[in-house]
Amino acid sequence: MPVHAIFERDDPTASCIYQPTPQNSLFIYLRDPISARFDENTPYIRQPLAVIVGPQVSPVSLRLHQEHLAIRVGFHPAGLYRLLGMSLHELVDKSFDATDFFGTPLTSLVNMLQHCIDFDEMVNLMESFLIKQLAHQKVILPFDLAMQELLKSNGTLPIDQVASLACLSNRQLERVCKERIGLPPKYFARLIRFSKAYRMREEMPATTWTNIAHTVGYYDQMHLIRDFKEFARQTPRGIEKELDRMPMKMQRNLRL
């Protein structure tokens, strides 16, 4: 999914917050560089042109410059594990240069993408690259399909039912989930629900939090507030103020 934005001026103090999502991603930046800060006490760090982001449970502050052009590839649950072949539990709140994994083919792809004339050409190049990677992927398991059902339910599918769909006991589900998703299943379900609620607010700022809580499947608004404090590090009211000042809504068009 390409994203393109040109700001009126380059404001080095302007930042956007990328809130946690249940979807692992590959980001490719094609114009001005982007910098990220993972903790309030650390400086912004310039990011590579291609970045793989593992399981994210903490907000990240991103500093954009005058022209922001990026392509994001989102992976189905366990998709990044199947591609990398390593435990995602080791990658929680971490990212790394994607060329360290894909090497020269990705470097060549980035160069071609930078010279594309339209989004359709970008998408075609990206899809061709990803199709070639399928030969290296680990086999899909019933667990992976079960986690997709959990995602479709906005995290409301009972864990016992998820385990049944995955053909696993609850204890086995816990172990496999940490390896292939990076997080315990109940925590992952909470992250799914939080992300849906946050994205609803980005897309429909006039919607009340009560309506969001009901639509997403929270038992009550207090449970929504609890998850916002856990993942966004602030209350829904604080999120409102944050969205008002952000120069760009980072997840408005995000589809999981």
What secondary-structure arrangement, pairings included, does this model have?
Blueprint: E1 2-6, E2 16-18, E3 25-29, E4 35-37, E5 45-46, E6 50-53, E7 60-63, E8 67-74, H1 79-84, E9 95-97, H2 99-102, H3 104-114, H4 119-133, H5 142-152, H6 159-165, H7 170-180, H8 185-203, H9 209-216, H10 221-231, H11 236-245
Antiparallel strand pairs: 1-8, 2-7, 3-6, 3-8, 4-5, 4-7, 6-9
Helix pairs in contact: 3-4, 5-6, 8-9, 8-10
What does this 3D model show about the protein?
- The chain has about 260 residues and is an alpha+beta fold.
- The protein folds into 2 domains: about 1-135, Jelly Rolls (Sandwich), CATH 2.60.120; about 140-245, Homeodomain-like (Arc Repressor Mutant, subunit A, Orthogonal Bundle).
- It has helices spanning about 80-85, 100, 105-115, 120-135, 140-150, 160-165, 170-180, 185-205, 210-215, 220-230, 235-245; strands at about 1-5, 15-20, 25-30, 35, 45, 50-55, 60-65, 65-75, 95.
- The strands form 2 sheets. A 5-stranded antiparallel β-sheet has the order 1-8-3-6-9. It has a 4-stranded antiparallel β-sheet with strand order 2-7-4-5, with no helix packed on it.
- A hairpin with a 7-residue loop joins strand 4 and strand 5.
- The longest helix has 19 residues, at about 185-205.
- The chain starts with a strand and ends in an 11-residue tail after the last helix.
